[in-house]
Amino acid sequence: MATQTTEDRVSERLELTPEEAALLQEGTLANTAIQAQPRDFYRAMRHGDPIHFDEKLGSWLVTRHEDISAVQSDPITFSVKHGYSEQQARGMREEFEAYLREHGGGYFPDAIMSDPPYHTRIRKLMENAFTAHRVKELEPRITAVVHDLIADVVAKGNGKCDAVKDIAIPLTIRVIVEQLGLDQGMEDKISRWSVAVTAQIGAMQTRETMLENAQQIADLQNYLIAKMKEKEANPTEDMISDLVHAEVTNADGTKEKLTFEEAVSLCRATLIAGNDTTATAIGNLFYVLTTKPGIAELLESVVDDERQLNRFIEEHLRAEPPVRALSRMTTKDVVVNGTKIPAGAHMLLVYGSGNDDETVFPEPRSFDITRPNLGRHVAFGGGPHRCIGLALARMEVKVAAREIVKQMMNMKLAIAESEITYTPTVATRTIESLPITFEAR
Ligand code: HEM
């Protein structure tokens, strides 16, 4: 029998314009043009069919803020474990697994992409590494890393750079590499590894790209395993050393060491989860600074006011959310906002649409740092799987914003806005490259 998850709540379906109706009928999130400019499609779904079955993806798209919040608060009915493993290398999972067993030291399921009660134990352990307090202590060091990187680009760029490839991507990689205790100078490799891991949840792989990605992931795992062995023998002050020696606390208070498989998966998750996402947020920052009138001036006016700057960053994450949609799978028949979903169905929580929901954020396309409910955005998800790295992510974006204003001015897009390309994936909305011009300040 179907279970009602959100009592009898059924939102009003609005009448669609003929264009919206056609978009709803023909659109799919698998279409790369819609992935690049998704907002009309999101709106059509929110208004006409808020829990929309995307046939091409074989997924139910949850698009309203209220429904996203309800689903993410019920991790038992809507399983992350099954959602992610089903999404991983969709349709080619066995081959993917076999490749990693043969070439990548093993197949290590994501320990954090799991369900309670197991997830709760792993999550506690990870949270210790990312507390707001611990992150605050990192601010001076991260500021130095970001300062140096931007100073280098300004000195060498001759008024030109690729804001994504020269700044956003290497910046986030340098920060996390330092935290984990990995080797610097591997930005290109780590960037390729990140793309390969995130492609597993992007729903856009062919067999050929899946095998290329598996090769990258094998390379990544072999590197991490060697590092972990090194730090097991000689611990240093960093997160890999912490993870290889970490113990989880069981419900009865007893402690247990992480298994090797768990430790590898958590090192991999920490290296990758924050890279693409935070780099995307910083790339998006350059995008709005160079294309949206008044935003660069607004940032300059708040940059020395910590509180206002924080509000600016939150509104930026709401308006341009890096993560678009992540997976769940139903563990029983269920009704969400009037729509019946069978057990074992794949779902995507469309965070990008939740942040655009006009019933929660009036005039969602206007950038307004005075919104009273700014903090309700779902760029970091919510419920028990809410982003673990959010304090670090916020701080990196904030530090980047400060350093950009201090060192660069009169930034302009060096290509037409219509030429900007986005990574083909349902999971994030990521600008691939952003050539800009600027003057040194
Ligand atoms: C602006 C940057 C970031 C964004 C937009 C972002 C977004 C998200 C979102 C939406 C989720 C929820 C996943 C779900 O609902 O299934 C999540 C989870 C997670 N994030 Fe982030 N993230 C960012 C940065 C980071 C950083 C810097 C790290 C760590 C270095 C990190 C580590 C994680 C981990 C480990 C999880 C899984 C948590 C769990 O399942 O319990 N993220 N993130």
Task: Report the count of strand segments.
Answer: 13
Q: What is the CATH first-level class name?
A: Mainly Alpha
Percentage of helical residues?
Answer: 40-55%
Strand content: 5-15%
Element string (H = helix, E = strand)? EHHHEEHEHHHHEHHHHEEHHHEEEEHHEE
**Helix count?**
17
Could you name the CATH topology? Cytochrome p450
Heteromolecules bound: protoporphyrin IX containing FE
Largest sheet: 5 strands, mixed
Protein name: Cytochrome P450
Organism: Novosphingobium album
Family: Belongs to the cytochrome P450 family.
Pfam families: p450
TL;DR?
Keywords: Heme, Iron, Metal-binding, Monooxygenase, Oxidoreductase. With 441 residues, this protein is α+β, with helices and mostly antiparallel strands.
Give an overview in words.
Keywords: Heme, Iron, Metal-binding, Monooxygenase, Oxidoreductase. It holds the Pfam family p450. InterPro entries: Cyt_P450 (IPR001128), Cyt_P450_B (IPR002397), Cyt_P450_CS (IPR017972), Cyt_P450_sf (IPR036396). Belongs to the cytochrome P450 family. This is Cytochrome P450. This protein is α+β, with helices and mostly antiparallel strands. The chain has a single domain, classed as Orthogonal Bundle (Cytochrome p450). It is 52% helix and 11% strand. It contains 17 helices and 13 strands. The chain has helices at 18-26, 32-36, 39-48, 65-72, 80-87, 93-103, 118-129, 132-157, 163-180, 187-199, 207-233, 239-244, 260-291, 295-302, 306-319, 351-354, 390-407; strands at 3-4, 51-54, 59-62, 78-79, 160-162, 247-249, 255-257, 325-330, 334-336, 339-341, 346-350, 408-413, 435-440. The strands form four sheets. The chain has a five-stranded mixed beta sheet, sandwiched between helices. A hairpin with a 5-residue loop joins β6 and β7. α1 (18-26) packs across α3, α10 packs across α11 (207-233) and α13 runs parallel beside α17 (390-407). It starts with a strand and ends with a strand. Bound molecules: protoporphyrin IX containing FE (HEM).
